[in-house]
Amino acid sequence: MNKIAIIGDLGLEMPDYLENVKKISVTTPFGPPDPIVYSGNYEGIEVIHLSRQMNRNKSNRLNINHIANLFAIKQQGCSHILASATCRSLQEEICPGEIIIPDQFIDMTTQWVSGLTDDQNPVEAVYKPMHDPFSCELCDHLVEAAIVQGITVHNKSIVLSINGPRYSSRAESNLYRGWGADVINMFTAPEVILANELDIPYATLALCIAYDSWRVSEDDDDPGHIRPVIAQGREKVLRMITYAIKKIE
After folding, report:
1. Is 135 helix (H, G, I), strand (E, B) or coil?
2. Could you tell me the pTM of the whole model?
């Protein structure tokens, strides 16, 4: 029986799409997971929900214990992970309000998460090949969800992750474009790395909220333009996730 983990981002902090929701207490060898962990069900399917942004203020919202979060998902016996995210576009054809389903990543973060082990933790180091880091099955379900529901989606894309909280400079942004990256965000790596090391199929759908700094525009950093994109995108993200949940076998 599948148990699906949903990692929510801005716009999908609460598990209000689930029934029989309850908070659950989780501890891991890597400390407690950062967000509140919820359990519930969606049309009879067991779901674990956690949000990267839950109860986080500006000073700590990017200092996330990703290892504890992913290990907690493993401890709960989750068979698959569907993660929502936001991102900024590195390509003209990827517009704010559209959805990206990456199949490759470039990790420019400096968080050391590879090899889930130390002297106190009962997890063996894993040298995991990551030529196909995202689950093809899950990505296909998300693409199908978008097509069936008339949602504009970009798949077979490359996401580049940076530490934040700052955005990239224009020079950096143009460099990443030259590398062939399509979008940029702050969370897909290291999550996808950890999911692979824990042998949990993982896919993400990222809502594009603005163009990155390579593109000169007065609107791209204006919260007044970004907030409506997130609010309107929430419905699309939720429709795609709930569709995909029912397709997982």
Report:
1. coil
2. 0.92
Give the type of residue at 180: G
Show the domain range for 35. Answer: 3-247
Q: Collect all residues with Cβ–Cβ distance below 8 Å to 125 and sequence separation of at least 6.
A: 115, 116, 117
User: DSSP string covering 12-62, please?
Assistant: --S-TT-EEEEEE----TT---SSPEEEEEETTEEEEEEETTTT--TTTTT
pLDDT tens series, the chain, 249 aa:
799 999 999 889 899 999 999 999 999 988 888 888 999 999 999 999 999 876 544 445 567 888 999 999 999 999 999 999 999 999 999 999 999 999 999 999 987 665 565 544 555 555 778 899 999 999 999 999 999 999 999 999 999 999 878 889 999 999 999 999 999 999 999 999 999 999 999 999 999 999 999 998 756 566 678 889 999 999 999 999 999 999 998
Residue with token string 């759908």: 205
- DSSP letter (8 states) at residue 168: P
Closest residue by Cα to residue 188 from 37, 74, 92, 70: 70
Structural domain count of the chain: 1
**For residues 87 and 93, what is the distance between their CA atoms, to the nearest angstrom?**
14
- Going by C-alpha positions, the residue among 126, 107, 120 that lies closest to residue 192 is 107
Per DSSP bridges, beta strands 183-185 and 80-89 are: antiparallel
Q: Which helix (H) or strand (E) holds 175?
A: helix 170-179
Q: State the CATH number of the domain containing residue 150.
A: 3.40.50.1580
Q: How far is it, in rounded angstroms, from Cα 90 to Cα 102?
A: 13
Task: Give the distance between the most distant pair of CA atoms in the chain.
Answer: 50
β-sheet bridge partners, residue 203:
82
